[in-house]
Amino acid sequence: MKLLVASDIHGSAFYCRKLISLYRASGAERMLLLGDLLYHGPRNDLPQEYAPKEVIGMLGALREEIFAVRGNCEAEVDQMVLPFPVMADYCILPVCGGRRIVYATHGHVYHEGNLPPMKKWDALLHGHTHVWKAEKRDGFFLLNPGSVSLPKEGNVPTCAFLEGDVFTVTDLDGNALQAIDLTQEDSQ
């Protein structure tokens, strides 16, 4: 199965449209959203074309294809207006024939400095930092699709694809920036 993985839309109708266009063109079967879907948050500037009500409609039209976890900007009111669950703190995805898991969360609680319970060579997938990442470190995979609308550290808006056992970060035009094979281990 091919999943589009995205985080930190922050209510930008402009970037949500680009994300959905990429999703449709990619052939992905589902979309995993890692939180901060509607609200821009008090620390962020308004993203381009800030229109949470439009984002609600766009994402709502894909409700049967989306699964999501809660970001630090989600609240109960977001769940009231979105037609798919958004209040789970994490989800678990089996990879590598079920031998490993991807622990998907927003990143404000669990992150590379505070790992959830995982076995060696499992993966932590999170957003929140607005900086994409795909790397092996200390016996774990650390994955971050970056931010759809408010990238940081000079990055462009990004998302990622998880297809089989490969995680690929792309820009919103679908150009691959980095890929990592989750079946690969170091000698650690």
Question: Top keywords for this entry?
Answer:
188 residues; Purple Acid Phosphatase, chain A, domain 2; five-stranded mixed sheet; alpha/beta; globular
Which SSEs are present, and which pair or pack?
Layout (H helix, E strand, L loop, with lengths): L1 E5 L6 H14 L3 E4 L18 H9 L5 E3 L7 H6 L8 E6 L4 E6 L17 E4 L6 E5 L2 E5 L13 E6 L2 E6 L4 E6 L7
Helix pairs in contact: 1-2
In short:
With 188 residues, this protein is an alpha/beta fold. It contains 3 helices and 11 strands; from the N terminus they run βαβαβαββββββββ.
**Overall helicity:** 10-25%
Weakly predicted, low-confidence segments: none
The CATH superfamily bears the name: Metallo-dependent phosphatases
Strand order of the largest sheet: 3-2-1-9-10-11
Tell me the series of helices and strands, N- to C-terminal. Answer: EHEHEHEEEEEEEE
CATH class: Alpha Beta
Straight-line N-to-C gap: 29 Å
Query: What is Rg?
Result: 15 Å
Q: What count of structural domains?
A: 1
Overall SS class:
alpha/beta
Shape estimate: globular
| Overall CATH architecture | 4-Layer Sandwich
Number of helices: 3
The biggest beta sheet reads: 6 strands, mixed
Number of DSSP E strands: 11
Q: Classify the fold: give the CATH topology.
A: Purple Acid Phosphatase, chain A, domain 2
Sheet-strand content, in percent, reads: 25-35%
Mean pLDDT: 95
